[in-house]
Amino acid sequence: MVTAYDVAKRAGVSMGTVSRYLTGNGYVGESTRARIASAVDELGYIPNRAAASLTTKNTGLLGFVVSDLRNPFTAEIASALSRNARLHGYGLVLADSMNDAAISVEAVESMRAHGVDGLIVTPPESPELNEALRRAAAVTPIVGIGLRTDPMVTDLVSSDTRTGARDAVTHLLELGHRRICFIGSNSMASGRYRGYEDALTQAGIAVNSELVVLGDLNRSAGYQALLQVMTLDDPPTAVFTANDAVALGVIQAAHSVHLDVPSDLSVVGYDDVDLAAHSVPPLTTVAQPMAAMGQAAVELLVKRLQGSDRDAGPEQIVLPVQLIVRHSTGPAMDRKH
Questions:
Q1: Bridge-based pairing state of the strands 266-271 and 238-241
Q2: What domains can you pick out in the chain, each with its CATH number?
Q3: What are the tens digits of pLDDT across the range 122-147?
Q4: Total-model pTM
């Protein structure tokens, strides 16, 4: 393995000069810089981050603890985080909690043990994760994406999910739907459920517990939930789901029992992942600004790490969402015919 000593020998300079060049701490003349740069290039030298961190106390790494990497939304957020971290000179390390609260806690503690400079964390929320983040925030900058600690001790990036959900359900109500099912989770997406409640209440419709299905937020869960509610004596004419993965499962299940979307059943998702526009039919959904969320999360961390306000109180950024109407929603069917 090529070392800094090899670079110094090739460039004909001292180790101290190479160190000043690599760290940017101290003066190195232009001609000397050119010789060192040439030696680095010829030898293919890559600085040892682990060794450097012993001196700087920084690893140049940001940790991202995700809820479920199979979720397209999570994958798109990870891509945005990685891109923006790189722009600021950081690498990104991922840990998938697979929607398991205990694994989330383990991931947070493991990231800290490996010395990441900052952490970005997504739901699912749990008392155990809340406590782990509360402890960690005392020494490590942390940003939650859609995850708020109690008390709020970390920065937070979120979107206006309650408004987005209310807009989605209002869209279905305006199409004449009254039996609207919500498929979500009891540990995530509470804002989307509240938005569902808001829209129904404003329309004078009571929330019907048999039309609320809570479980996992993946395609399989959506598939099974739709089959479940369609066995009701008075099944729904529309479904609003907590994310697009669930919505795609609902559409798949509808096709399997010969229901046409949207003639027999309207479906609205949430997130607007890349697959949403390419489903059959294209999915009506609430678009979250995933690229902007990733950018904001990294910038909050970098401000904590490189700015003078590391000890300032938690900051919250709430980004707007937008209802995207495609072809998976239509007028409520008339069951009298």
A1: parallel
A2: 4-47 (1.10.260.40), 61-159+289-319 (3.40.50.2300), 161-288 (3.40.50.2300)
A3: 988 889 999 999 999 989 999 999 99
A4: 0.82
